[in-house]
Amino acid sequence: MSETLAVHLVDDDAGVAEACRYLLEGLGLAVIDWRSGEDFLAGVNLEEPAAVLLDMRLPGIDGKAVHERLQAADACLGVIILTGHGDVDMAVESMKRGAVDFLQKPVGAEALDRALASAFARARQCAGDRRIRDYAAALSEREREIARRVSQGLTNREIAEALHIAVRTVEVHRSRVVEKMGAANSAELAALWQRIET
Amino acid sequence: MALLGPAAAAAAHAASTDGGHASVNAGDVTVGILAPRGTAHTLEQWQATLDALDESIPRISIQARAMTLDGIAAAVAQGQVDFVLTNPGQFVLLGTPYALSWLATLRSNPANSARAALGSVLWVRADSSYRRVEQLAERRIAAVHERAFGGYLLMRPELQAAGMDIDAFEVDFVGYPVDALIYQLRDGQAEAAIMPVCMLEQMASEGLVKRSDFRALAVDEPLGGCVSSTPAYPDWTFAALPHVSEALTGDMARSLLAMDGEDTARWGAPVSAARVATLFDDLAVHPLGESLATRLMDTLQRYWHYSVAAAVLLALALLYHAWLQRKARRHGRALEATQLALRERERELADAQSLNVSGELATTLAHELNQPLAAIRHYAEGSVLRLQREAPDSPLLEPLSRIGHEADRGAGIIDQARQWVRRDAPTPERLSLHGLFDHVRALAQPRLQRLDVSLTRSIAPDDLGVLGNRLAMEQVLGNLIGNSLDAFEAARRNGWIQIDARRAADPDRVTLTVRDNAGGFSPERLARPFMPLDSTRAQGMGLGLVITRRLLQRQGGEITVGNHADGGAAITVQMPAAESLEAAQ
After folding, report:
1. Higher pLDDT residue, B421 or A102?
2. Which of A114, B5, B83, B348 is geometrically suited to a Cys-Cys bond with B31, CB 3.0 to 4.6 A?
3. Which residue segment(s) compose the domain that B526 sits in?
4. CB–CB of A87 and B424 under 8 A?
């Protein structure tokens, strides 16, 4: 889970984009350049968690609209809004739409590094959650009930009594659920399940 | 026949006609007679004559109306009489415009010809000292009427002949009867009286006055045994109005001429009134047109009640006019003030507009400059990151990070300008004045040295601070010192700039004064110190003071521009004191 994530840089100004890529690569990051909102939306792999440096002022679809579409697509992308003029209203609006941060150009390396760290964390979290949800979706109804009760801290015997099944049956289901959910043990399964249930 | 006074005659006349012209065919004939000595006297004087006319023309019944000059004129104008008997002066005045037919001329005195019968006499009291006409200047002279022929009209040339302005004589027109004039003169109410010739003699013969009490001035040739002050003019004339039939006119003329003069008046053929017309020409009273003033006076007298009403209305109108004028004046002043304010406002608007233009420019620049500044910063910092990894001892690390900082500073200034244009007040912070001046001095140092200008400061207390935005305040102080340096440079002289900062009378404010000895502002510049694009400088946009003021206003500060007595500029700035922030928190 700790592999480096990519940074999508959406800025129509090639000079700035090149400079930013130079800075980001200096920070040891992989940069994917996009010259317009349309290009980005058409080309980005929404399944892949990443950070996005999104300029507000873009030709065609502007930054705000791009951000809204990313939200609608439920992509696991940590979005950082970049703007030439930081006004408070715009910042508040962006954060409400779920932006990780709102930075005013020219952005310093430190601030950018900090914001990207948050963006990556958000993307990873999102991707993790999604994977757990995907695993959970693959469980059978019985397996889901057992997983919920495990996350509630019930013992195998308690679960067997509640579901009116044999303890042995609970043990079999339980080990299959831990495996299907990609968890190492029952404790991790409990933690994962709590993440998606809340 | 009936003899009636003016009022009775008018009533009788009204009863006998349906209005309009007097009805000749019905047999009633109205004769308007000039009554210089009053109604009773006139009717008595002419009774026999009119009776004789009545008798000789059986088909008519004559009614006599004793009238004043104005009365006759009005009656003729309105056709209310059929015949008139009046003096030649009035005939000339009325004859042409109303097409009167001249029937006969009176021969009141057999010794006189009809051509020389009328004149005027200027009487004074016999015991008075007046010997010449001009001595009567400024004295009260009584006369009947401005247009009384055997009176003022004939006398007027004599008065003028005395070589004086006619206005020098204080002539008082007292109206008919003529008798009243002589009594006024006798009783000292007037110093002189203008009378028809023979009038005084007649009154003396009637025993009314003593002839020896009076003396005539400007004596001309005697007229019919009477003293006269004027040349003689034709006698009274009997005339018919144009609506009277030719037959009746002829009968009337024949009857008049046939009178023997025993009891009646004696009549002769009508004589020429040419001399009268000439006289009128001389007097500038043209028959066809009385002077406007005279007509106006006549009208006013005739319709006195209307005149009074008109006068009252006029007075009210004048009062109203005066009131309106006062109001208008006051309003005008207010308007002027409003206009001044408006012009001021317009100017400010123009200021704002030109600032908006620069504001637009600033917004565009802010965005466009931000991009390369961002790129510069990114490259600088990207390089720093690489060097830190690969060559942490590189001497380039320091300048590269400075490049990043400077780019950031540039972006900060741009953002400031943009916020200033957008009227977003920057967040105020506590700013040490010493700190601000240290910075500004450092910036100005090269110019101060080059121009040999000293910059001293006196800040008390030492930790005095203002509440504002650092960049804005640096710009304000930089502009003020820059202004002084510009003035020194333009005047090609060296000198000093003094900065003085202390707490204002209001403890929440700080007063900051920048003075120099570079000559000060010109009066024109002082009149409009904050007018943009109006620089006294050869270079520059002249926006310095405008921007300075705007920057100060954004921070709750203000600026006043002036000169001090020692030949230099004195600019005073007020800013909120730093403590007020702490107090608020």
Report:
1. A102
2. B83
3. 429-584
4. yes
